[in-house]
Amino acid sequence: MPAKTINDVIALCKRRGFIFTGSEIYGGLGGAYDYGPYGVEMMKNIRNAWWNAMIYSRNDIEGLDASLITNRLMWKYSGHEGSFSDPLVECKKCGARMRQDKMKDPTKCDNCGSTDITEPRAYQLMMGLSIGATNDGEINAYLRPETATTTYVNFKNVLDAKPHKLPFGIAQIGKSFRNEISPRGFVFRMREFEQAEMQYFVNPSEDEKYFEYWKKQRIDWWEKVLGIPANKLRFQPHEKLAHYAKAAGDIEYDFPDGGFDEVEGIHNRQDFDLGSHTKSQNEFKLSAKVMENKDSTIKLSYSDAQTGENFIPYVIETAMGVNRAMLVAMLEAYEDEDLGDGKTRTVLKLKPWLSPVKAAVIPLVRNVPEIVDLSNKIVDDLRRLGIGKIELENSGNIGKNYRRHDEIGTPVCITIDHQTLEDGTVTLRYRDTMEQERVKSDEIVKRVLDIVTQK
């Protein structure tokens, strides 16, 4: 059966080296996690799949990797410095701090049930920095709370370096930082997290068309690429729109513990973002209400060569949490199987391209040089394919090796034994069915390649 609770996956992550508690030997740090040997591989696979869909498969989107440390003025004019906050309340009885809009009952403490709680106050989510040799300790920069704003301020840089006609997009994957009141749901809500965001710049007359287009594109990615069943996903429009938004909604996944929750946002941000950061705002007919900007040095506008019109484009944004995507993929792939006779196994039935280890090579005995040498040769041949991590599993018990690779999602194991020395065949053992077959060792490279590249 699939995971009944997120705790099933949390235990697997710690046991098998996907995700560890950050700073664990010192008691940890709320909302901070370290990705282990298999976690980094799976995260890389998700990044690559998103990057391939957004950039390598298209002609109209360019990549960007912007700085994590950012000028304070950027967040002043984006509105973050003045309004990017959550409502914080404290329980006067037990001292617990909570985000009011996420409480089960806004009148009662989630921790002890007391009704003696403070009035909500704004809690700044951005992480401020004091940088430079001559600073006096005051905040003069921020760790970025999102990748989007660092994309908007690079709009003209990218357009000048790689000219495009509208519509076109800029995409980036990277770390963001938010001083969350109450991190929750394992890696669902963290203080340091990874985003995959794309800003698609369109003519204001075509904004609604491209909002619907990207909504469909992104839902299709979750279903067809990541392999999430359609009945586990939904698109939920926002009941209350942000001041800058014309339309917005979330792709949500049905989590086993709390039901549907956000994994990716799709937003029509109008001309708010480029309009907020542009020089000479009064030269443009902005639809969104923006703060007067006297500090920008660049006009973030687009000149239409055909019409001669110079205007601020609208932005359609797609914003995915990479950590959440990995969590969803693991929850969906997790199974506890009853094998009969009191035996069970835990298996991650990940799509092969997503698996952290693509194949494991297992010499059945470790004290026969010919078997070990042949195992090493097969490993080397597979690694030359460049398809991802290939492991040499030279630790003994074959049954335990199979179970370990079931748990980390390895799609195929290759066992070399005494029969291999006699007839040149090896055993392929398949994760999902546990079926085994003997094949010629010179067929291994093609067979593994076929397995890990299947969609």
Describe the structure.
With 455 residues, this protein is of the alpha+beta class. It folds into two domains: 6-71 and 145-330, 2-Layer Sandwich (BirA Bifunctional Protein, domain 2); 350-452, Anticodon-binding domain (Rossmann fold). 29% of the residues lie in helices and 28% in strands. It has 13 helices and 24 strands. The strands form seven sheets. It has a seven-stranded mixed beta sheet with strand order 3-10-11-17-14-13-12. The longest helix is centred in the N-terminal third of the chain and has 20 residues, at 37-56.
Number of separate strands: 24
Instruction: Based on the coordinates given, report the CATH architecture of the largest domain.
Output: 2-Layer Sandwich
- Principal-axis shape equals globular
Q: Between the first and last Cα atoms, what is the distance in angstroms?
A: 23 Å
Q: What is the count of helical runs?
A: 13
Strands of the widest sheet, in order across it, are: 3-10-11-17-14-13-12
Key descriptive features of the protein:
455 residues, alpha+beta, BirA Bifunctional Protein, domain 2, Rossmann fold, 24 strands, globular
Helices and strands, with pairings:
Elements: H1 6-16, E1 19-21, E2 33-35, H2 37-56, E3 61-63, E4 69-71, H3 72-78, H4 80-83, E5 85-90, E6 97-99, E7 121-124, E8 127-129, E9 141-143, H5 148-152, H6 155-161, E10 168-177, E11 192-202, H7 207-225, E12 233-237, E13 247-255, E14 259-268, H8 272-277, E15 302-303, E16 310-311, E17 314-321, H9 322-333, E18 334-340, E19 343-348, E20 357-363, H10 369-383, E21 389-392, H11 398-408, E22 412-416, H12 418-423, E23 425-430, E24 436-440, H13 444-452
Parallel strand pairs: 3-10, 20-21, 20-22
Antiparallel strand pairs: 1-2, 4-9, 5-6, 5-7, 8-9, 10-11, 11-17, 12-13, 13-14, 14-17, 15-16, 18-19, 22-23, 23-24
Helix pairs in contact: 2-9
